[in-house]
Amino acid sequence: DVAPITGPFELNPQSSSLYFVSTKKQHVVEAHTFENLSGSISEQGAARLTLDLASVNTGNDTRDGRMKEHLFDTSLFPHAEVLLAVDYAALTALPIGSTEKQTVTATLNLKGVIAEVTADVAVRRLTHTKVMVQSLAPVVLDATDFGLEPGIETLRTLANLSVISYAVPVSFNLVFEAQ
Ligand code: OTP
Q1: Which residue of 13, 21, 45, 61 shows the fewest CB atoms closer than 10 Å?
Q2: Closest atom of ligand 1 to CA, residue 105
Q3: Which pLDDT score is estimated for 21?
Q4: What is the CATH number of the domain that holds 174?
Q5: Angle at 54 (CA atoms; ends 86, 160), nearest 5 degrees
């Protein structure tokens, strides 16, 4: 028998990823990521995911630089943060190898604007000390909810594009580990 988990879970950045999708000129759809993620789940059930906005990787250095400067304003807002409450006892009671579907509501703080986001996730106990939280459906953000439309319009003008969509699907795969 193994001792029950008692301490906090920390995000394993090597095993975790988050992707978001942009759409330009109606039909050009591209997937992008943030390289640096961190996060934790405390024994009190406070779950946190922090995105280093300056680690945005769209596969295009010019575009990454423009997004940091004009969209995210990373010198003023280096991080985006997702916070939610989870049931720590239920999480650590999940049998190894089993998966539970949940609909979670979190707050997303992006550029100082806090809005609720809801996600359908699968929570899977991988090993005694590891859990994976995976989006089952993409979370579709509306950039206007976070006041990002001026930034998107600046990117559109700089790239001389007809349109960039304000609807941004986000998907994630997060692995948390306890000691
Ligand atoms: O010239 P040219 O054509 O080449 O032009 P370019 O393409 O170079 O230039 C034009 C530029 C373009 C096209 C890019 C435009 C960019 C955009 C439109 C992107 C805008 C981005 C936005 C709006 C947002 C980015 C995404 C985020 C900040 C991530 C948000 C995070 C989310 C939604 C995750 C939410 C997570 C949740 C709810 C759950 C988290 C779970 C936990 C913490 C664990 C819980 C634990 C348990 C046990 C349940």
Answers
A1: 61
A2: 38
A3: 98
A4: 2.40.128.110
A5: 115
